[in-house]
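User: Here's a structure from my thesis project, written as structure tokens. My advisor, Dr. K., wants to see whether a designed sequence matches the one we expressed. Can you design one independently, without my sequence as a hint?
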């Protein structure tokens, strides 16, 4: 586990365990709940924190968990999760699939993105950014990690990982369905608000800090970026992908940035067009960084920065963009059977199609089989089909 020293998001004082299900700030006496090893440190949820602690202290861990699973971020516009569905999820979590969990949490279109992220072009752009500048980090911290897609890839390669998100349910899903079960002890999760008065994960214990498809959401970007740089310290590096361009309106809400903002925030950065990264993966080459002012028309920026980054990108051939050898891969679940052995893409929604169809790396049609034993070679054209995500490495309980 990464040796993060957790601090109170209100006072900045170090938090210590006072029970198996809570942390305490010795200076103020304030307590914070911990469920399944995930501290809940949101600062604008005092009533929920108090209610959760009361239930945990009374031995009602199931009800306490259901309460935290219902909590959402401030951008959420969908309906609240059904309490009966949450009860079923908590009760039956050992036998449910990731798809079941997403459905019972009521995530709607957000769930569509999570379930299919293993092949979406923006996710592949993030992997390409990482591989092009990879320097064998030992410890990685992902801020706004969602349900842990990237963390899973790091953990499978033996990297120590930690993840933070504002939505407790996403971290909980990462814990139980996405980060491999036998790697859970290597994963540290913490739930907190980016705008907390004090950054709860203190110090600089990591080699790489990652933030994917989330930085544009945040207020106070300069202050948050300063905190992330402190986590990377004097020798680490940062990789931030899919930062929406305010001069190119897109599909997502948030606080998009301009090329001017990117230039000011990352004076030490290498800046990429997100789409260029995805193309580099398919074409098996090094991606080309650009001056941010030459990218005013791109949909999203990606950036690496910090003293520990590679000075120049290398070709994207056989690193974190591809599954580990020996993995059993499955046909991309976006394909549905249309005849014996033939499959066609069925988009989960019109919005998903509008956002990704034009950038998709996989073909609209595929001819089986449904699984592929990946040996890391190009036997029978395997490597290309894996590289373009016709076949994907899904979690065991997907």
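Assistant: Designed independently from the structure alone:
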């Amino acid at each position: 586990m990464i040796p993060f020293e957790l601090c109170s998001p209100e006072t900045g004082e170090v938090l210590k365990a006072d029970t198996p299900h809570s942390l305490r700030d010795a200076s103020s006496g304030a307590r914070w709940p911990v469920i399944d090893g995930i501290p809940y440190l949101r600062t604008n949820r005092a009533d929920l924190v108090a209610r959760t602690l009361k239930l945990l202290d009374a031995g009602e861990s199931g009800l306490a968990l259901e309460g935290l699973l219902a909590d959402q971020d401030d951008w959420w516009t969908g309906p609240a999760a059904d309490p009966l569905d949450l009860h079923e999820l908590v009760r039956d979590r050992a036998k449910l699939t990731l798809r079941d969990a997403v459905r019972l949490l009521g995530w709607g279109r957000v769930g569509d993105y999570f379930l299919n992220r293993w092949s979406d072009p923006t996710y592949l752009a993030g992997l390409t950014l990482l591989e092009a500048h990879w320097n064998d980090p030992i410890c990685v911290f992902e801020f706004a990690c969602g349900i842990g897609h990237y963390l899973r890839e790091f953990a499978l390669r033996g990297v120590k990982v930690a993840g933070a998100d504002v939505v407790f349910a996403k971290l909980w899903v990462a814990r139980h369905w996405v980060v491999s079960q036998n790697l859970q002890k290597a994963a540290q999760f913490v739930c907190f608000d980016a705008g907390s008065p004090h950054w709860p994960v203190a110090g600089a214990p990591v080699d790489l800090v990652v933030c994917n498809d989330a930085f544009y959401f945040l207020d106070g970007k300069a202050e948050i970026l300063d905190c992330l740089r402190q986590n990377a310290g004097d020798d680490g590096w940062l990789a931030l992908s899919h930062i929406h361009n305010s001069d190119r309106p897109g599909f997502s809400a948030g606080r998009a940035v301009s090329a001017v903002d990117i230039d000011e925030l990352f004076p030490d950065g290498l800046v990429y067009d997100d789409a260029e990264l995805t193309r580099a993966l398919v074409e098996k080459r090094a991606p080309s960084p650009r001056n941010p002012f030459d990218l005013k028309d791109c949909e999203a920026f990606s950036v690496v920065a910090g003293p520990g980054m590679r000075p120049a990108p290398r070709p994207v051939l056989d690193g974190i963009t591809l599954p580990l050898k020996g993995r059993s891969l499955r046909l991309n679940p976006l394909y549905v059977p249309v005849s014996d052995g033939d499959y066609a893409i069925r988009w989960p929604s019109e919005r998903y199609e509008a956002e990704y169809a034009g950038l998709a790396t996989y073909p609209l049609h595929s001819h089986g089989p449904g699984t592929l034993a990946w040996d890391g070679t190009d036997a029978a054209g395997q490597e290309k089909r894996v590289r373009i995500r016709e076949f994907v490495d899904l979690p065991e309980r997907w």
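When you compare it with your expressed construct, this may help: Residues 328-392 form one domain.
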